[in-house]
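Two proteins, back to back. First:
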Amino acid sequence: MSLLGSASALRRLVRRGRLSPRHAFRLKILLSIAVACLLEAALHVYSHAIPRPARDLDGPFSTKCQDPMLAAAAHPRENATFVMLARNDDLHQALQSVEQIERQFNQWFRYPILFLNNEEWDPEFVRIMKAKVSGEATFEVLSPKEWSFPAGTDVEHARSKIDLQGKQGIYKGGMESYHHMCRFYSG
């Protein structure tokens, strides 16, 4: 239906009393906007069409499926260990991470995973993780010297600053254990 046909149809509806002139005017404006939007969309699709290259611009990463065991045999395994800082109550999140590492990589290479905690390990955490790790799983407890405030620190002053960060809404700013973790990771 053309625009002129739409306009004459609106006039007929107004003459027959089925549509008020005010509503007809609003309908004309809406139809004009709809037509303009359709034209703009068509112009956009036409002007932004990107032609497909005649040939591949990048060669494939690999031209055939590779067996990870054969690839591992062709190249010596690096001397490495995964290190995970976790707590006993982080079992669900730690389990998800370990399952992903195993599924995507470690099932073929069997690298060890070292789990670190600042508290004694829950035997259930140890049992579940040892069952999931394809390599060796080691569980160590960090000493207070490695985890807590360094010697010579005014502990009360540090704790007051940590509390202040929490009150200011700084992300994890009020969590003392988060500050210890950051300090541990920074060496």
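And the second protein:
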Amino acid sequence: MIILLITRCLPLPEQIRFLSLHPSLLALCRTSLSPIPPTVRAALISSDPYPQLLSRLPTLSLYLPDDGGQLFIDLLVRARPRWILETLECGRWNESIWQEAFERRFLRSWRRFKSQDDSWRAIFLR
């Protein structure tokens, strides 16, 4: 537990390096005690520009908690639009993740622009 508290104080790139040092540390990333989500939220709030590693986070599946995509919903809701479109390596997440991110980020009235043929990913990125 103390190691996780110390890990949360590290910047995201150093945190990833530290967590990869031992399999037991890496296993902690898959639990609800993962230090990654609080670090990502803090980076989204305070960093300008965002850390480079943040854009590649969806590809680092070993370090991501089993939270049903909640980390990516927060990322899609809080990040700057230009950064999402130009830099973020968007994963192939479930439609439910894209739908929740759309509903939390945009006005309810914007749902009218979604046709039957559109996916939630497409309407979010549009």
